[in-house]
Amino acid sequence: MSATIKVESVSSMILLTVSFEECISAVCSNVKVTNCLKAEINNCTIKGCVGEKGDGGFMSCLMEGRDELKIFNSSMNACNAREDGAKGGGMFLDFSDDSENCYLLEKVSFDSNMAAIGKDFFIECFDLNKTVIASRFLFRLSFENGSRCTDMSGTDRNRMEGKSLDLLLFLIQRLDNHIEISKEGLDIIGCGTVEHPCYSFSRGYKN
User: Fold this and answer.
1) Which residues contact 82 (CB under 8 A, 6 or more apart)?
2) Which of 105, 26, 113 is nearest to 70 (CA)?
């Protein structure tokens, strides 16, 4: 199915319990969001979506000012950003200089997505230290044969000159020695804080 959804300069976009399967966009990503004050994807299944040109196989999102993006309880599988050098097989997030970086990925799964850089998703911003925060990544990693499959990459336009890095390793390097553990906790990316404690000590240690 050929499809391109463009959302630009609107107050809100909400995709609730929607399935996208085998979608192909010849001009850009399948869902292109620009200057949207509140964008939410909840309980959606996204599979096999292809962006023939540009970044973001399924979705590309430009965040400015107080724009918000929240993705809950959704899966993004076998999506592909096909153009040479494209970033973000599942999605591409671009934060402007003045963005307050209000985004959250919670209970999201990524599997078998493809792109030249950042197979699952890619973040481009002006300051990774302010933008890439553990509490915004509340989902489990996928593993196969003991190796991590989830591929999250990003770049800092101010200092990295186009080079990208592994965002999970970036998050691990910034963790302090204080890790919260609780019986009500979850062993997910970013656990170990008061708001989001880990369930097991081993998970907190690995973080």
Assistant:
1) 50, 51, 52, 53, 57
2) 105
Strand partners, 147: 144
The whole-chain average pLDDT of the chain stands at 80
Q: Write out the chain's pLDDT in tens, 207 residues.
A: 555 677 766 778 888 888 888 787 765 677 888 877 788 999 999 999 998 888 998 999 888 878 889 999 999 999 999 999 899 999 999 987 766 668 889 889 898 899 999 999 999 988 888 888 878 888 876 666 555 667 889 988 877 676 888 887 787 776 555 567 777 788 777 677 767 787 765 554 444
Contact between residue 154 and residue 164 where contact means Cβ atoms under 8 Å apart: yes
* Nearest partner of 59 among 94, 99, 90, judged by Cα: 90
Report which secondary-structure segment, H or E, holds 143.
strand 143-144
Neighbours of 15 (CB within 10 A): 19
Contact 30, 20 (CB under 8 A): yes
CA distance 204 to 180: 8
Sign of the dihedral through C-alpha 37, 167, 188, 90: positive
CA 197 to chain centre: 21
Residue 98 carries which side chain, given as an amino acid letter?
Answer: D
The owner of tokens 């399948």 is 30
Of the chain, the end-to-end C-alpha distance in Å amounts to 40
